[in-house]
Design brief:
Blueprint: H1 2-8, H2 40-48, H3 50-56, H4 61-70, E1 74-75, E2 77-78, E3 83-84, H5 86-97, H6 101-109, H7 114-127, H8 130-137, E4 146-150, E5 156-160, H9 161-170, E6 173-174, E7 177-178, H10 185-190, H11 200-231
Parallel strand pairs: 1-4
Antiparallel strand pairs: 2-3, 4-5, 6-7
Helix pairs in contact: 4-5, 5-7, 6-7, 7-9
Length: 232
């Protein structure tokens, strides 16, 4: 199960670092402290959120997995007082403790907990190299399940996983966070670093064409065999 697979990976939780500071063993991301991928004013709001103080303060890597499994919506900043969603709080916590890549991949591949998948995809988009972003996120464009989005007005909106993934790949801001720039897919294809993307629809069309060709061939074989049977 997802619960046990994530625990079989190396879950590193540093000792002795403050709850609002980055793991001293964490590597820089895009040339900066990972936490800086969320602007300072938003980080300050996250630090003041009850969810952060009560659930994320000093949380271990294993406990982070449990919190991710409890998510029931995603989003960024909402309401007149500019509150922060639990989803964004956990994103910052992941930037702080920097889980191993294999943990993030398990998040993304998880099919049982939709918001764990979204959290992993969002984190990968923030810290991942362009090739990793396309490799791990594009398959999720085939996930059409419904999810709940916490809108800026504080209300929930119905959205879909593939919609969120498309935003991560094509927009500059998602969940009120500026995303690091990545090359367009066509640029990476032109450089020979990415294969042209194949969608599920492409496979379906090829299967239909193959079936039609098989029917045509079978029909011609039957027509050719008909006169032979008559001569016999």
């Amino acid at each position: 199960s997802f619960f046990y697979r994530t625990r079989s990976c190396r879950l590193r939780t540093p000792a002795g670092f403050m709850a609002n500071t980055t793991d001293p063993l964490a590597r820089s991301v895009h040339g900066t402290n990972p936490q800086n991928l969320i602007e300072k004013i938003t980080r300050s709001k996250i630090y003041d959120m009850p969810f952060w103080k009560e659930r994320c303060f000093g949380v271990s890597a294993e406990a982070l997995v449990d919190l991710a499994m409890e998510l029931r919506a995603y989003g960024g900043i909402y309401g007149g007082n500019n509150k922060i969603t639990d989803f964004l709080c956990l994103t910052l916590k992941m930037l702080q403790i920097q889980p191993d890549k294999e943990i993030i991949v398990e998040f993304i591949k998880n099919e049982d907990y939709k918001y764990v998948r979204l959290l992993g995809a969002f984190y990968m988009r923030l810290v991942g190299k362009p090739l990793d972003v396309y490799q791990y996120l594009e398959p999720l464009l085939n996930d059409y399940r419904k999810v709940r989005y916490k809108a800026a007005q504080g209300i929930f909106e119905l959205r879909h996983i593939d919609e969120f993934i498309s935003e991560l790949l094509n927009k500059d801001f998602v969940c009120d966070i500026a995303l690091p720039r990545i090359p367009h897919r066509q640029v990476l294809e032109g450089a020979g670093q990415l294969e042209p993307r194949r969608s599920v629809l492409d496979d379906d069309v090829e299967q239909e064409l193959a079936s039609e060709e098989e029917v045509v061939v079978t029909g011609k074989e039957m027509e050719a065999a008909g006169p032979k049977r008559k001569r016999q």
